Amino acid sequence: MVIERIENNQIKITLSSGVDTFGLQRLIDYVNYLEATADSKAEQAKVDRLADEVNESWWSKNKSRFTK
Asked: Is residue 20 a contact partner of residue 32, using CB atoms and an 8 Å limit?
């Protein structure tokens, strides 16, 4: 693996082709999340509460699809 800074404040990461693509996609998703939230002023506790509310709402609407 090679990591280097290139022009325009970018970072270039070069990996061998043998890297697991599923794990790599999870890593890319996480980096996208970090980039998207870098300037956020949201408090983690509020974000966690919102996530809990969304999950509870989703589960109540979809529970019947997964349970008998």
From this structure: no
Interacting residues of 6 by C-beta distance below 8 A, sequence separation 6+? 12
Report the 10 Å Cβ neighbour count for 46.
Answer: 9
Question: How many distinct structural domains can be found in the chain?
Answer: 1
For residue 11, the enclosing domain spans: 2-66
What's the pLDDT tens digit per position in 11-28? Answer: 999 999 899 999 999 999
Q: Are 4 and 11 in contact, with CB atoms under 8 Å apart?
A: yes
Contact 2, 13 (CB under 8 A): yes
Secondary structure letter of residue 19 according to DSSP: S
Query: Would you say residue 56 has pLDDT above 90?
Result: yes
* Residue ranges with strand state E in 1-68: 2-6, 10-14
pTM for the model: 0.54
